Amino acid sequence: MDYDYVIVGAGSAGAVMAARLSAKAGVNVALIEAGPDYRSDQTPRAIRSPNPHQIITSPDYADYRWDALTSRRTAAQTPRTYWRGRGLGGSSAINGQIAIRGTVEDFDDWAAAGCAGWSFDDVLPAFNRLETDLRYGGEAYHGDGGPIPIYRAPVSLWGAVDQAFAEAALDEGHPWAPDHNAPGSTGVSPYAINSRDGGRVSVNDGYIDPARSRNTLAVFGGSHVDRVLFDGDRAVGVRVCQGGVWRDVRGGTVILSAGAVHSPAILMRSGVGPADHLRELGIAVTRDLPVGDGFQDHPAIFLPIRLAPHARPPGGFRHTNACLRYSSGLAGAGPNDMMMVAMNRFGDSLGHHVTAPDGEDVFGLIGLWVNQCLSRGSVRLASADPFDQPVIEENMLSDPSDRERMRDGVRRLLSLARRGAVRAIGEPVIGLAADADDATIDGFALANAGDTQHATSTCRMGAPDDSAAVADTEGRVFGLEGLRVIDASLMPSVPRANTHLTTVMMAEHIAARMLGERPSAQG
């Protein structure tokens, strides 16, 4: 059968689009997901856990990840695993569960750059609509009836690294900000998370599962999309492998929500992307657009702390509950351009430059990342084979502003590590002299910077005359009919925050505009 909407990817954006669009009577929606299809009550325990280490690293859960996907973080590094979720919920099923919004300035900057309708005032209703804030739901800038619960652990339930980090940051003069999602807040905050009763609430739980009973929604798991199908300049469906058999799934509107890595890959295999790159791979060019350009993620440095026995958390303990946003005042950056976080447990891809011979529970981490970053990388196809993973060059710290602020941030991190509150829980494994010069710190950062799994901006939205834009402000791909991109790849720039909540917001925001439409499967 033909569908009104064919949505590719059941992650932080695709799940929202499927739930919102299928709520309209008479509309047929197909949600196509490469990974496992499972109901909320079938969620593996490792996904529910407050700590994502097992779901990210254990070979028992490889079906829920793209383990063959790698990226090179900086020009000084070699490629290594880049964590992306696979299956119902997408990366919202394997991430750190952080529920932090971008700043007011992020969205006002988007609007000023040509993305009309995306200022903070424009997007606030969508942020409110998606959440049930368990502490601040009564405030005008929060919601209390949405599908995503927003929880903040009380300080009494924090880990030793959380508490020491927060105390040290306050001693350094940073203010306390009880709600980092309040407009204008800055300083030390409890990290809000999308959690209920100690367990993760993914978009599979919040959006897809409640919509399963509708006869307007069909969910296809284990279905790998190769490319978009076109009739002239109009998208008419996708080519998909289901159970080893290739078939076409046709629809009136195709929505790519496969994320900032795989949405551009699908577009490029469809002939939509940089013409020279496509021709090199023998792919006929349908539309020459800067697909895959502009990749961003937050470059991060993590400082390990060899924890004293009393500070070591039990297995499965929540990995982080505290963060610090601050303004460096350097290189023309705006408010909250930098971020620090506490990590109670060593694990996953963080602190990869540290060897933990006594086991992961011996180490905690305090981390730093460039929250408002300017460096940009790329996503390109390795081949035209739909089962080959794309090539990611993150190009982190290539912009001088990012290097300057990272350098300053490393010095602040070292200062914080020398505070008594941190020394009381263990011994920092610094690897840098307190008086290290600029070149030494730059070299350390380039060699050791990791990402924060915040991939964005590879199919940027913008004005029609923006040469860097792939789509308009509702995700419609320029020059093509019936094709949209709605996920983190649409962001003009990475927000000053973990990206999950902003991605959900974007889908809510665009879905609200689309619900007055009624595209037919015929056109």
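(ticket continues) Second input and output from the same batch:
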Amino acid sequence: MHPYRSHSCGELRPSHAGEQVRLSGWIHRKRDHGQLLFVDLRDTFGITQCVIDVSSPLFPMLEETRVESVITVTGPVVQRTPETVNAAVPTGEVEVQIQELTVQSRAEVLPLQVNSDEDAGEETRLRYRYLDLRREKMQAKIRLRGAVINSIRRRMVEQGFQEFQTPILTASSPEGARDYLVPSRLHPGKFYALPQAPQMFKQLLMMAGFDRYFQIAPCFRDEDSRADRSPGEFYQLDLEMSFVTQDDVFAALEPVLGGVFEEFAEGRQVTAAPFPRIPFREAMLKYGSDKPDLRNPIEIVDVTESFRGSGFGIFAKAVEGGSVVRAIPAPGAGERPRSFFDKLNDWARSEGAAGLGYIIFAPDGTAKGPIAKNLDAERTAQIKEAAGLRDGDAVFFSCDKAGAAAKLAGQVRNRLGDELDILEKDAFRFCWIVDYPMFELDEDSGKIEFSHNPFSMPQGGMEALDGKDPLGVLAYQYDIVCNGVELSSGAIRNHLPEIMYKAFAIAGYNQEQVDAEFAGMISALKFGAPPHGGSAPGIDRIVMLLADEPNIREVVAFPMNQRAEDLMMQAPAAVSERQLAELHIKLDLPPE
């Protein structure tokens, strides 16, 4: 017999009764019934009940062995009596009578409970992550992650994509988030950077003649933590295709994402392909966001003209100054108590808004609230019709410059979706956001900047860059969104050096800067580059949605905390003077 196990802890059934077996695992629970000691033995495959009689010489050894110690037991499989069957586990009809016992490793007193879902607090869970990962709930989420990645990889290969690896040590990028820098010992004073994404390398693979590339790529960005973003590193399905249009990229990616979500949906509905396509400007108007949650039926409408020259002076004056007014319908809220509206008003102020005006359309057809008192009946009726409201509904307003008004309206829409409990249940709703502006105006500096991806192809090519207001130029850029979570950004790339020089010139780069900062890319474009495009859906966010987890750290095996610290490995940490000297680095630390 094998020294550790003949079977797993999830394998035994009544058909094994009478067999001599050997199991190894962790002591999940112990139950002392006086004459009998029951032990639930756990491994990654399941749990088997084992039992030992007080008359056994092994009884004291097992009795003093703590929960989460690792043991090996040997003995016969016995079928349980009907009244002792545990239907909650697959092995619940049998038990193992312990005749031999080896303690492989003794556990100390635990800092957190493994055999329950009791919340030990994030700091303790991350410091002892290896214990946290033993919990059944965490095991399920990490196994889900592995299964999702395997499914994605299979679907990509079936579509003719080849998997390649791109460098981890590369050059710092002037665009995007902060880089993680790695000092070079052989080249004092110079640094590598960990890749924020394999963007340039995957484009260079297309220029090298590989037609369809993908990888499950690690990416590194020195960004602050959020619930849906890990500090430090994350993984994405990175893909690129040659000789494709935007439609071709969508057609390749929709079966992969849609198929994965259907595979792991567990009864939840998934948007059927082709996914809806929403232009960026339409998304900002209707949803106040370029990552709309389409489970929410609320659509924002523009009601600026209804307030122009109106008796509601605050909005009328703001409109004359260039502001807009967005109306956010609240279906059924007209019958809510006054406290509902006061609560939302207080919340809006906590978000930095001046307040949140509203009109209540009572069930009897009358319009109520501070705004309704200062607005004539005709204008109120216009708003009601424009927002698709009925008696018993309410409407909230966001008045500001277009960008700020859209942002607040989008936040209100999301808040109302939760407060009114009107989000579609058990569904994954996908959409593409398309037609992003190529450039945007920095309000602080007044300079034109790239709005999304600087390597995108402008719609209309060189003619658009030469003949249009830069702020009116659209790009072949797109995001894919699911339930309000941005899974990926992508684009049809600019494959022509003259267009790249022109686009970067508009954003304030001269040719010498482009040649210096994007040397590999611009050089490759001059030697024959195919039209190409791609995308990069985030693996962590995909699993987070499928696991129905609001916090991305719950689906990463060994995440950092919100301060980008690995509490378990105690990183980041100081290094020795010898190591610094090898790298020709002297520290200039801020005062404590």
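Agent notes: The chain has a mean pLDDT of 95. The two ends are 61 Å apart (CA to CA). Closing as not reproducible unless the customer responds.
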